[in-house]
Amino acid sequence: MNMVRIWDLPTRLFHWALVICFIGLFITAKTGGNAMTWHFRFGYSMASLLLFRAAWGFLGGHWSRFAAFIFGPRSIVAYLRGQAPAEYSIGHNPLGALSVYAMLFFLIAQVSTGLFCEDKGEVFGPLSMFVSNATVRLVSGYHKNVGQVLLLLLVSMHLGVIAFYYFWQKNNLVKPMIVGDKLLPGNVKPSRDDTVSHMVGAIVLLVCAVAVGWIVRLGG
Predict the structure, then answer these.
(1) Residue 108 class from Cβ within 10 Å (0-12 exposed, 13-18 middle, 19+ buried)?
(2) Angle, to 10 degrees, between the axis of helix 9-31 and the axis of helix 148-167?
(3) pLDDT of residue 84
(4) Distance CA 64, CA 67 (A)
(5) pLDDT tens profile 61-94
(6) How many structural domains is the chain composed of?
(7) Using CA atoms, how far apart are residues 137 and 65, in angstroms rounded to an integer?
């Protein structure tokens, strides 16, 4: 058994920053009023994080790259039957990969629609001026009534799976996302996680934040 670095530091920081933003967005959305200023700030932060994760899926450590958790239908069936190779459970397993992609897709949809939303005719997304009133109403309906519910369901499922693995499988999925390492048998390729990769991650995040800031400023 060897202790292997699976989740690099940028991936771990992304994950927990995303959690903070999600909680902040949910609370400020329910609070409304002056809290909407912070709702937009959390939204812009999440947009920057999602752009970062998209780039980090190609530049990050081995197990953070999309290539490490792209599974076809046969792989998913084999995993459900308990016939998948052990390496499928090192990073994201086939079902976990589906969950990650679904979460990323609907989070991107949520922050994107938020740029065009309006709230009670008082608060407007920075890009709402570029689309028709009908589009604003349509997008706002999705953002408030559909996207929010879908994300809450996905998060609930995610937490349920973590609890299942912890209590029934005796497998703590949270700890590796905190410390980065897993105790694994045999020779497993570790993720690169050094000063250079940390600097690259910081630069990529900065570029993503600047890009989001530029998009927001388009609306004045």
Answers:
(1) middle
(2) 130
(3) 83
(4) 8
(5) 999 999 999 999 999 999 888 888 888 889 999 9
(6) 1
(7) 37
Q: Is the pTM of this model over 0.85?
A: yes
* Axis crossing angle, helix 195-217 with helix 36-59, rounded to the nearest 10: 130
Which CATH number covers residue 25?
Answer: 1.20.950.20
Q: How far apart are CA 198 and CA 192, in angstroms?
A: 10
Q: Which residue has the tokens 């996680």?
A: 193
Closest CA to 22 of 107, 101, 100: 107
Quote the CA–CA distance of 89 and 3 in Å, as a whole number. 15
Q: Which neighbouring-strand residues pair with 5?
A: 181
| Cβ atoms within 10 Å of 53's Cβ, excluding its own | 24
Range of the domain at 96: 2-217
